[in-house]
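User: I want to check something. If I give you two sequences, will you return the structure for each one separately, not as a complex?

Assistant: Yes, each is folded on its own. Here is the first sequence with its structure:
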Amino acid sequence: MPVTPFTADDLARLRDTLNDVVTDGGTPGGVIVCGTRDGQRDVLTAGTVAPELGEDVPGKSTVYDVASLTKVVATWPLLGRALHAGLLDLNQPVRDLLPPMDGEAPSGEATVRQLIAHTAGLRASTRLDLYRGEETPLHELLCREPLEEAPGGHRYINRGYILLGLALAHVHGRPLDALAAEMWREFEMRATVYGPVGRDRTVAPTEQRIPGAPRIWGAPHDDNAGLLGGVAGHAGVFSTARDLAHFGEILLTAHRAGDGHPLGMWLRASLVPQATIEPGLDRGLSWILGAGGQVAYHHGFTGTSLYLAPTVGRYLAICTNAVYYGPARSRIAPLRALALKTISAV
């Protein structure tokens, strides 16, 4: 099937909506890349990187804390690689992929598939600060926790991806950030790294938690990722619109190759619904599935998003630091809604 490019009207609506979000105080600025698997790219920008950086305009090389996009940019593809290498099985309890532990471990019985699809029933609240001073390893503390509900239903839970990050490090015998860095080098995603990163003009600051205190800038916005040194399965990655666009192209090209490409096989398997989120939306393996399964996407709490439409061969990446002004979800909802509508159109 030929690639379906974005139209001039599509781009105009997205640009106008991004401008409106900036004007309404939803984010200091942002970058959108609309592209196709054959390399067509349109870059839309608005606003500034942050008020303290004056008139600096965000661009495709501006570094953003992508927050929960970590799940699909780092953890999800690494899990696919480990699966292809025979290091894990989707229906395997995660405790089997972690250092040995004695006794009952209710949360450790969750399977890799359940953790990826947010159907494990683990505790939803992720408060790693409650484990300060504990001598027991983190993986054991997490695995020993009781389930909050029976497995099977969908509930978005970060701690499952924390366990998956720990499992990936254990089965490889290497730190998660080293595994990710090697993969990103292969993908030629040169600006994508686990934080912290430098506090400079190329990096978009995020939230000021306490009036008068320094703003979070170059360090992960997510508290739990911060407690893990910036390296976690659920959050902690910094990237650029350029790298996210390149990642989108890689995924769409792999999807087209299908069974002839391990990443394509993994993406296709991940687009099979695992649980219903709400009417019209399902959860695949990591990805949210919409438009009758024709679109896969994921958001980051800081104000980032990545959308894929594999059948028509196009993607849409959004980078903002909307959390600069506080919780970002409602502030950029109009932009995300338009992005989903736009990429769903054929």
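And separately, the second sequence with its own structure:
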Amino acid sequence: MSMLDTAKRWARTIKRDTVALWLAARDPRVPWYAKAVSGAVAAYALSPIDLIPDFIPVIGYLDDLLIVPLGIMLAVRLVPAGLMQEFRDEAARRAKPVSRAGLMFMIAVWIAAALVLLWLFWPKPA
């Protein structure tokens, strides 16, 4: 098996698990702490806006290559195994949703960062 095939299979697994975690965050059988982590990870992963934009060289892909997979691994461990398999099966049949909550969160983070930078660098009266 080639390295490209391995990367494609890994990407499909990440996408499926993201949708499965999105489902887990909405299921009443999942413990509250697993719901919280699953919901946060799914919202971030499904958000059309990244914390670190991809156009920034090297670190732009850090969230895609490290933050999201590590978050998924943590959330998957928190969801009971039987339920996680059920969510994975359902996720394989569904289309990938888009997270409006994740989008709003990322917009809020960028606005907060801009306000902090303005406050730090705005000339102060003497």
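Because they were folded independently, the notes below concern the second chain alone. The helical segments are 3-24, 32-46, 62-78, 81-93, 100-121. Residues 3-121 form one domain.
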